[in-house]
Design goal:
Blueprint: E1 4-9, H1 14-25, E2 28-34, H2 38-47, E3 53-57, H3 63-76, E4 82-85, H4 100-128, E5 131-136, H5 149-168, E6 174-180, H6 188-191, H7 198-201, H8 207-219, E7 224-226, H9 229-238, H10 243-254
Parallel strand pairs: 1-2, 1-4, 2-3, 4-5, 5-6, 6-7
Helix pairs in contact: 1-2, 1-8, 3-4, 4-5
Family: Belongs to the short-chain dehydrogenases/reductases (SDR) family.
Keywords: Oxidoreductase
GO molecular function, one term: oxidoreductase activity
């Protein structure tokens, strides 16, 4: 049987790594991308599962990085059956205390790079009349994120964008699903300078389980999935809680120095 073909971004670690691993286990060949050399080691893991894999080390915050990835996808020689747009970046601390370039990098990675890539591959899918897109949003997108203001704002965009794009593509043969995890055990908190916060030190969800939930939602063409019952409850409460109160609750979790001993 011919294996299907998936593109997974942010696949070197965390949720993206496990999404790519599940794809390899379920019969997909892969182009995987990340902005660090570890993507090549991850690709060898996926190859060991029987998949044909091409690794692309590229900064998807830039148009050049997306172009490089898309060129590798085209050179692979198969139409894309599934795009798992997972690449993301976080950043803690108060907005005015952050380096502005670092804050803009969060926007460029999470928003600009994601929509550039989906625009390229999504057009190909629509022209062919089939394909699946999974976007990694977050329950953070429901909450004004004091001390993660830019990150939560980008996830609010992605959550909204996924639902809008899903509606636009109905009856085209292309499905769009949004994975909305809560705090997950990944490199995110260390890289985002959040380890001295309560949320940085708290127990988190298992990345492999979150990825499994996202993959199944994509394959079942579900509109969205919030991974984990506690996160489902938090997402539901966010819809009826005043924004100011949500921001204050987030402050208690994410402000520097709130880590519990």
């Amino acid at each position: 049987m011919t294996r299907q073909f998936a593109v997974v971004t942010g696949a070197s670690t965390g949720i993206g790594y496990h999404l790519a691993r599940i794809c390899a286990e379920r019969g997909f060949d892969l182009v995987v991308a990340a902005d660090e050399p570890r993507i090549h080691e991850a690709a060898r893991d996926f190859q060991a599962l029987g998949a044909r894999v091409e690794a692309v080390e590229a900064d998807l915050a830039t148009a050049e990085g997306v172009d490089r990835l898309y060129a590798a996808v085209t050179a692979f020689g198969q139409p894309v059956d599934a795009l798992l747009a997972n690449a993301g970046r976080g950043l803690g601390r108060g907005f005015l205390d952050q380096d502005l370039d670092a804050a803009l990098k969060v926007v460029e990675t999470n928003v600009s790079g994601t929509i550039r890539l989906i625009h390229r591959i999504g057009r190909d899918m629509r022209a062919r009349g089939e394909g699946r897109i999974l976007i990694t949003g977050s329950i953070a997108g429901f909450i004004p994120g004091a001390f993660q203001a830019v990150y939560n704002g980008t996830k609010a965009f992605l959550n909204s964008f996924a639902f809008a794009l899903r509606n636009e593509l109905k009856e085209t043969g292309v499905s769009v699903s949004c994975l909305m995890p809560g705090p997950t055990e990944t490199e995110f908190f260390r890289r985002g300078d959040l380890m001295d916060s309560d949320v940085g030190q708290a127990k988190k969800d298992d990345a492999a389980k979150v990825a499994e939930d996202g993959f199944e939602a994509m394959m079942n063409e579900e509109g969205d999935v919030v991974s984990g019952w506690k996160n489902k409850m938090q997402a539901a409460l966010a819809n009826i809680t005043p924004a100011g109160l949500l921001a204050e609750q987030h402050r208690k979790m994410a402000a520097p120095g709130t880590a519990k001993s």
